[in-house]
Specification:
Distance between the termini: 57 Å
Order of helices and strands: HHEEEHHEEEHEHHEEEHEEEHEEEHEEE
Structural class: alpha+beta
Helix content: 10-25%
Strand order of the largest sheet: 3-2-1-4-5-6
Number of helices: 10
């Protein structure tokens, strides 16, 4: 553990890679070095099904020769491996097509300050504690009346560190931890069985929901789904539970991604500066939130991050940009570059969320005479070029302002531009994921049944 917390070796390796690339003929270069360790325990039917420990060390090098670039990665550098990797990357870059937008970040935009975002819990639990958490989750789920089987419980923990070094002098490092517990429960018998789940994932163990609470929630959710009905196709208001409502915010982020806009594959490409949500709606990306799932003081190009209002008062204000897409669109990066060790940077969100509204979830439901409350979405039937939306769904039918019977095997369909404009957020925002949203109601969607 001490070697993981000490990032000097990672920094030294990244520095040596960049220096080797410059010696081999690169005009510019950057290197990413990553180290992680994780433990996990899976339990099913009150027996340990699997226990794993994994450790990894990976390094990636990006080189630019003129306007040609290449990226290469490895998890094994020994002896003269640094020089060999750099020479291979240079050879790849020299035969790559030119990219007039490629290049490192403007030095004036690089992070100079690194605020403490409280991302690390240095106390890693042992296998015994993880096993105890998994067993507690499963026992609690099996104790719920109507639960017939365990779909499996899991508990895990890990720590990961990353270092970025560039040839124009940037050096930055991040270190964070992760703790999680999950449970999948099965209710009913034979062909009438239904399954559901719950989980908790946090950076600090102290923020983790109690394992038995997660288990009971998974069990209760599974039992609620028993004896689902079919419904006739109709056009009704649809309420998206907070567990899955963030998916709509992710669709917005995908459409507002600078790479999609530059490729003309976004249905929002002509909407910058226009109203796409109702007045008062705000969608914010905040990479500097303490203990955020995707918090970071700098992006994958070393650019300083800042909170960004993607949507303000219902108006689309900006794209999510890295340096290359910003150059292509004649804009400035928003500090949203992401990359793995084997890829070049591309834009993506950090801690993205839809700001809460004023109505509670019960109020959103109480105003509906006939509608659908979605708790689970299935499939990926969303066309980001046209904005057409169609996904399988399960949940509960709403009658006279109350959730009544469970419903499954239906499809929810609409168009994202209309859905955004007709969206009303609830007031129950909780930061559980990388992308978060409160319960939300969308008017006039087609629920296709029999």
């Amino acid at each position: 553990m001490s070697s993981l917390l000490d990032q000097s070796a990672l920094t030294d390796l990244a520095c040596r890679l960049v220096a080797a690339a410059r010696r081999a003929g690169a005009d510019q270069a950057d290197a990413v070095a990553v180290r992680s360790v994780s433990l996990s325990v899976d339990v099913r039917d009150r027996a340990v099904e699997e226990s794993q420990r994994s450790e990894s060390d990976d390094v990636g090098l990006r080189v630019l020769v003129g306007k040609r670039q290449a990226s290469i990665s490895t998890n094994d550098i020994r002896g003269d491996g640094v020089d060999a990797l750099a020479e291979r990357a240079i050879a790849m870059a020299r035969v790559a097509p030119e990219d007039k937008f490629a290049g490192l970040a403007d030095p004036a935009l690089l992070a100079r300050a690194f605020p403490d975002l409280d991302l690390l819990d240095p106390d890693m639990p042992g296998v015994d504690l993880l096993e105890r958490r998994a067993r507690q989750a499963e026992d609690a789920a099996l104790g719920v009346k109507g639960v017939s089987k365990s779909g499996g419980a899991s508990a895990s923990a890990g720590i990961g560190g990353m270092v970025l070094v560039t040839s124009h002098g940037f050096r930055g490092a991040t270190l964070g931890s992760r703790h999680s517990v999950s449970m999948s429960a099965i209710a009913g018998e034979g062909t009438g069985m239904e399954q559901d789940y719950d989980f908790s994932s946090t950076l600090h163990a102290g923020d983790l929901e109690a394992a038995d609470k997660v288990g009971r929630s998974a069990g209760a959710r599974a039992v609620e789904r028993l004896n689902p009905r079919k419904v006739a196709t109709r056009r009704v208001p649809v309420v998206f539970d907070a567990r899955i409502s963030g998916s709509l915010v992710n669709h917005l982020a995908g459409a507002a991604n600078g790479a999609a806009v530059a490729r003309k594959t976004s249905f929002l490409r002509e909407k910058l500066g226009q109203r796409i949500f109702a007045p008062g709606i705000a969608i914010i990306d905040d990479p500097l939130r303490k203990r955020g799932q995707r918090s970071r003081a700098f992006d994958a190009e070393g650019v300083a991050t800042r909170a960004l209002k993607l949507v303000e008062d219902g108006v689309l204000k900006t794209w999510l940009l890295d340096c290359a897409t910003a150059r292509e669109l004649n804009l400035q990066t928003t500090g949203h570059a992401q990359r793995g060790v084997s890829s070049v940077p591309s834009p993506g969100p950090s801690n993205l969320y839809l700001a809460p509204g004023t109505k509670g979830p019960d109020e959103l439901v109480a105003e509906i005479e006939d509608g659908f409350y979605v708790t689970d979405l299935i499939g990926t039937g969303v066309n980001m070029v046209t904005g057409d939306y169609s996904r399988g769904a399960a949940g509960f039918w709403i009658e006279n302002g109350k959730r009544t019977y469970p419903v499954s095997e239906v499809t929810v369909a609409g168009h994202l531009t209309e859905m955004f404009l007709k969206l009303t957020p609830g007031n129950d925002l909780v930061f559980r994921f990388g992308t978060n949203a409160p319960t939300m109601r969308v008017e006039g969607l087609t629920v296709a049944g029999h």
